[in-house]
Amino acid sequence: MKSWGAVRAVCRPTRLSNPVTTSRFRSTRSIATAPRRFTLNTGASIPAIGFGTFQDPEAQEDAVSRALRAGLRLIDTAQVYHVEKQVGRGFRASGVPREDVFLGTKLWCNNYHPDDVEAALDRSLRDLDTPYVDLLMMHYPVTFRRGTDEFPRDARGKMLLGETTYLDTWRAMETLVAKGKVRAIGVSNFCKSELETLMRESSTVPAVHQMEVHPYLQQRSFNDWLLAQGIHVVQFSPLGNMNDFYRATGWSKEVSHMTRVIDQPALRALAAKYGKSVVQVVLAWGVGAGRSVIPKSTVDWQIRENVEADFALEPADVEIIEALDMQARFNDPSLDYQYRLYSDLEGTEGARDGKTH
Ligand SMILES: NC(=O)c1ccc[n+]([C@@H]2O[C@H](COP(=O)([O-])OP(=O)(O)OC[C@H]3O[C@@H](n4cnc5c(N)ncnc54)[C@H](OP(=O)(O)O)[C@@H]3O)[C@@H](O)[C@H]2O)c1
């Protein structure tokens, strides 16, 4: 981990020799190139295309195993997904060596008190069956009341917040790197001013910011700024509102019901032009911009299709995708969490009150 000031724009693409087999893939691309990777500000390399594990806990063991066997080498999980045991078992079943995989997890907001951080990580390591994670992130900048309740609420259902801040949590996370339990630390769902505070008040620049990015929420100036700070962006929900969660959750916004990316006409035309699926075009757009993408799927052909989503789009086609930006943020539990998330970013209008669970 380098100190603030020592890193600038270090997220550069690299290619390693680790080809994946493609014979049964739907796409027509014959693979001659190795999967693209980027270099973090720690010097570690992170794959461009990864695998998300939110939802479907009963299917995740098999899905993780299949994703690794299909060639994916970046697994994203989180304590609050309650799938870390399944991820650990799936990883073991895949037979892929630990050192070949970039494994990241996230602390949940009730574990943010500095005295709770290491014990929470230890539970993740136990469940994931690994001595270390490649990346530990704070899931959100908001701190909930410490304790075993992941969503601590008062009698009226209002979320109870903790007394420490994300800065206290971050300092506790920094110590875990020195102990070798964590290779890099990062954040998720932070806004620009929160990241500036973190960098001003601590000695570690986050290696990664995991945040919502897709054609309907492109956050171009924020992405440019993160790149300039040497903070690598991992796009969550890279397929936008494909995830039904955004239509079903208590704080679902009207905007979540907009046309799904796979039905978007301009994207469909691009998919036809390249002989790819719309999903592959959308993932290729993110990877081409220097970001990692972590689509979630439990469906075999979809997993294998997503592996094959790193190809170059012509600049004019990138412009077509850029024109689809609607600043449509689907993941915004601000009102439920009693904390204004994304305060200096795009797409916060239309946040709805309602419980996550
Ligand atoms: N940090 C955070 O706060 C945060 C928030 C949200 C997500 N995440 C992470 O990001 C990951 C991905 O985000 P997400 O799960 O919200 O959404 P997503 O990956 O953008 O979309 C998932 C949906 O797309 C479908 N899909 C995947 N590949 C497809 C393909 N090739 N063709 C057609 N459909 C396809 C999946 O289908 P099936 O369900 O049928 O497989 C699922 O319904 C999560 O799993 C999690 O690891 C992080």
From TrEMBL:
SUPFAM superfamilies: NAD(P)-linked oxidoreductase (SSF51430). Belongs to the aldo/keto reductase family. Keywords: NADP, Oxidoreductase. Coiled coil: none annotated. InterPro entries: AKR, Aldo/ket_reductase_CS, NAD(P)_OxRdtase_dom_sf, NADP_OxRdtase_dom. Substrate binds at H139. GO terms for molecular function: oxidoreductase activity, acting on the CH-OH group of donors, NAD or NADP as acceptor. It comes from Cordyceps militaris (strain CM01). The lineage of its organism: Eukaryota, Fungi, Dikarya, Ascomycota, Pezizomycotina. The record marks K106 as: Lowers pKa of active site Tyr. The active site is at Y81. Pfam families: Aldo_ket_red (PF00248). This is Aldehyde reductase (AKR1), putative. The keyword Transmembrane helix does not apply. Residues 54-324 form the NADP-dependent oxidoreductase domain.
